[in-house]
Design a protein that fits this description.
alpha/beta; Rossmann fold; Ribosomal Protein L25, Chain P; 7-stranded mixed beta sheet; 26% helix; binds adenosine-5'-triphosphate; binds magnesium ion
Length: 585
C-alpha cells in the first residue's frame, strides 16, 4: 500500500527539479520543460492518465511548459483516430499544451541528416540481416552478441546503400541501418541497435514521403533534445535505453551537429508504471478486446481507457486527485481500484445532484390517496451542498418502488416494506403495506396495496412513532422510462494477467461485467432539459452526473437521447477503501 486517503506521498522528481532550479543546472532562467510522448497506436488508459498528470502537472507547478508529442515512428500501427483521441483525452483531463504540439515525424528530415553523419563518421552501417537474424545475433545477458557480416562495409558503400534504402529500391525487411557500437556491450540495447528500417507504408502525417522510418530509440532522445526538454520523465522500462539515447546525443555533439541554441541536454528520470487491480494496462491487449468484440469499443465504460472511464462517468478532477495521491514510485506496485473509486466518490458526493430512480420497479397503489391528485414534494438536491437548492418531485396515488424493498416474508432485520409494516418514502409520507396482488397463474407479485398517513408529509409522524427504513420511489404517472447499465470489473482477478501456465489472459474476463436493465423508472426532472442543463454546468465536460438515491452515482450515457434515456452506473455508494486502508495499517 502506498497511499492512504489522507496522506500525500513524497515526490522524488519534484525534489530533483527543486535542486536543479536551485543550482541553475540548465542555465539561469531556463524554463522547466516536460513532455508527454504517446505512440498513437491505441487509446490512452489510466496509466497514461497518471503520466499526463505527472508531466503536465509538473510543468504547471514550476510555471514551465509541457509538450504533447506524438511518437509516430511506426506508421503501420498508427492512425489518425488514435491521434485525435489522445488530444481529446489530454484536454478532458484538464491540460493544455498550447502551441507545443509536436510529432517525432516533424524530425524525420533532421534525423535522416544526422544518420548520414553517423555513416560518414563510421558509426553506422547498412546491414542485410533479416530482423530474425538480427535478434538472434544479439546474444544474451550472459553471452556476447555476434558481429554482423556487414559491419565492415566502407563508408562509401554504406552511404550508397542507405541512399537506395531511402529511395525505395529495397523491399521491407531487407536492410536496416545499424549503429556501430559494441556487440559485447553489457547493455543489450547498445549491441549495434537498429536506427532505421524499411517500411513501405503511408504515414498519417508525412504520407508517402518516406519509406525508411527511424526506430523509437533513435528518435526519442533527439526529439527531447530538439525541443529543449529539461526533465524527460518516463516509466522504468526505459531505464536501460537511457545509455543509448545518451550515446546518440554524444555522437551528434561530437559531429558538431547539436541543435542550435540549446545549451543543455534532456535528462531522463524513471518512475514505476501504474497498475490498478482488475484493470488491464496493455494497449495491445486492449486492442484485442476491441477487435474480439469482448467490449463494445475503446470507449466501453468497462474499459480502463480514458475514453471508457469518461463514458462511465468518472470526473477529470477525481483522476487528477487519484494521480496526486498515489504519487510517484520507483518500484513496480499495484494500486487497489478501491482507491480510485474512493477519489471518485469524494468528488461526486460533493457535486452530484441527487435524484430518485427505481431500477427494478414494483408498482404500489396507495388506496386512501385521492384518485387524480398530484402533489409536488420538496426534495433536497444535495445535502452536501446547500447551494444546490431543492426541486419538486411529483407524488400521486400510484408509485414505483424497488422490488427488493418489499419482502412478503421479511428475513430477520429486514426493516423495509412487508405486509403490515410501515416505511418512509424519501421526501414524502409514511406508508403501510396492506396487501399484495399476485398473478393467479404464476404467483408472481404484481403490485402492492398500501395506505398513507396524510399527517406525515415530509416523513415524520406527529405522534413520534419510529419508522426505521426510508425508501426511494417514483410517481408512476410522471415516471420516465430509462435504460440503466450496471457494471462490474472487466476482469475477475486482481491481476488480469494472472493465469495458469498455458492459459489465455482472456479467461479472466468477467462474463458478468455488464447488466442492462430496461424499464427502469426515473423521476421526471431527469428528462427535463432545464434540470439536465443545470446539472451539466457543474461538470467541465458537460456530462450530467447524479446520485440516484441508494443506488450509486450515475451519468447520462453518450447514447442517451430525450426519447430514450440511458444511464451508466459510474460507481456504487459503498466505499470499501477506508476499510482496506485500515486493514493495511
Ligand atoms: P506500448 O505498449 O504501445 O508502448 P505504452 O503503454 O508504453 O504502450 P506509450 O504511448 O508509449 O504507450 O506511452 C506514452 C507514455 O505513457 C510513456 O511515457 C509511458 O511511459 C507512459 N505510460 C504508459 N503506460 C503507463 C502506466 N501504466 N503508468 C504510467 N505511465 C505509463
Ligand atoms: Mg511505449
Amino acid at each position: 500500500m502506498t497511499a492512504t486517503p489522507s496522506t500525500r506521498p513524497s515526490h522524488f522528481i519534484h525534489e530533483i527539479i527543486d535542486e536543479d532550479l536551485r543550482t541553475n543546472r540548465n542555465g539561469a532562467g531556463t524554463q522547466v520543460a516536460t513532455r508527454f510522448p504517446p505512440e498513437p497506436n491505441g487509446y490512452l488508459h489510466i496509466g497514461h492518465a497518471k503520466s499526463i498528470c505527472l508531466n503536465f502537472g509538473t510543468a504547471r507547478k514550476y510555471n514551465g511548459r509541457c509538450h504533447l508529442r506524438m511518437d509516430d515512428t511506426n506508421p503501420t500501427k498508427e492512425e489518425q483516430e488514435y491521434i485525435d483521441s489522445i488530444k481529446q483525452d489530454v484536454r478532458w483531463l484538464g491540460f493544455d499544451w498550447g502551441a507545443h504540439e509536436y510529432h517525432a515525424s516533424d524530425y524525420f528530415e533532421q534525423l535522416y541528416q544526422w544518420a548520414l553523419l553517423f555513416i560518414k563518421a563510421g558509426k553506422a552501417y547498412v546491414c542485410d540481416l533479416t530482423p530474425e537474424e538480427v535478434s538472434k545475433s544479439r546474444g544474451s545477458l550472459t553471452s556476447p552478441g555476434k558481429e554482423s557480416p556487414f559491419r565492415g562495409r566502407s563508408v562509401a558503400e554504406n552511404l550508397d546503400l542507405f541512399e537506395r534504402m531511402h529511395k525505395g529500391e529495397f523491399p521491407d525487411g531487407s536492410h536496416t541501418l545499424r549503429a556501430k557500437i559494441d556487440m559485447a556491450h553489457p547493455n543489450l540495447n547498445l549491441r549495434d541497435p537498429v536506427m532505421y528500417r524499411i517500411l513501405h507504408a503511408d504515414h498519417p502525417r508525412t504520407g508517402g514521403k518516406w519509406c525508411i522510418y527511424p526506430m523509437y530509440d533513435y528518435a526519442h532522445g533527439q526529439s527531447d533534445w530538439l525541443e529543449g526538454i529539461t526533465h524527460s520523465i518516463c516509466t522504468l522500462e526505459f531505464e536501460d535505453h537511457k545509455p543509448l539515447y545518451d550515446w546518440y546525443i554524444d555522437q551528434i555533439a561530437s559531429f558538431g551537429a547539436a541543435p542550435p541554441g540549446i545549451a543543455y541536454r534532456p535528462r531522463q528520470y524513471e518512475f514505476a508504471r501504474l497498475n490498478v487491480t482488475h484493470m488491464m494496462m496493455s494497449k495491445r491487449k486492449l486492442l484485442q478486446l476491441v477487435q474480439d468484440k469482448a467490449v463494445r469499443g475503446w470507449d466501453d465504460p468497462r474499459m480502463p481507457t480514458i475514453a471508457g472511464i469518461r463514458r462511465r462517468g468518472f470526473t477529470p478532477e477525481s483522476l487528477r486527485d487519484f494521480a496526486d495521491r498515489i504519487g510517484v514510485a520507483k518500484r513496480e506496485n499495484t494500486i487497489e481500484i478501491e482507491l480510485l473509486e474512493h477519489c471518485l466518490r469524494e468528488d461526486l458526493n460533493k457535486r452530484a445532484p441527487r435524484a430518485m430512480a427505481v431500477l427494478r420497479p414494483l408498482k404500489v397503489v396507495i388506496e386512501n390517496y385521492p384518485q387524480g391528485q398530484i402533489e409536488e414534494l420538496d426534495a433536497v438536491n444535495n445535502p452536501e451542498d446547500p447551494s444546490a437548492g431543492t426541486r419538486k418531485v411529483p407524488f400521486g396515488r400510484e408509485i414505483y418502488i424497488e422490488q427488493e424493498d418489499f419482502a412478503q416474508v421479511p428475513p430477520p432485520k429486514y426493516f423495509r416494506l412487508s405486509p403490515g409494516k410501515e416505511v418512509r418514502l424519501r421526501w414524502g409520507y409514511l406508508i403501510t403495506c396492506t396487501g399484495v396482488t399476485k398473478d393467479p397463474a404464476t404467483g408472481a407479485i404484481q403490485e402492492l396495496r398500501c395506505t398513507y398517513d396524510p399527517a406525515t408529509r415530509g416523513g415524520n409522524a406527529p405522534d413520534g412513532r419510529k419508522v426505521k427504513a426510508t425508501i426511494h420511489w417514483v410517481a408512476a404517472a410522471q415516471a420516465v422510462d430509462a435504460q440503466v447499465r450496471l457494471y462490474d470489473h472487466l476482469f475477475t482477478k486482481d491481476d488480469p494477467n494472472d493465469v495458469p501456465e498455458g492459459a489465455d489472459w482472456r479467461s479472466n474476463i468477467n462474463p458478468k461485467s455488464l447488466e442492462v436493465l430496461t424499464g427502469c423508472k426515473v423521476e421526471p426532472s431527469l428528462a427535463a432539459p432545464t434540470h439536465a442543463n443545470s446539472a451539466s454546468s457543474r461538470w467541465t465536460d458537460g456530462i450530467a452526473r447524479y446520485q440516484f438515491e441508494r443506488q450509486g452515482y450515475f451519468c447520462v450515457d453518450a447514447e442517451s437521447t430525450s426519447d430514450r434515456l440511458v444511464f451508466n452506473r459510474t460507481v456504487t455508494l459503498r466505499d470499501t477503501w477506508a476499510k482496506l486502508a485500515a486493514k493495511s495499517d
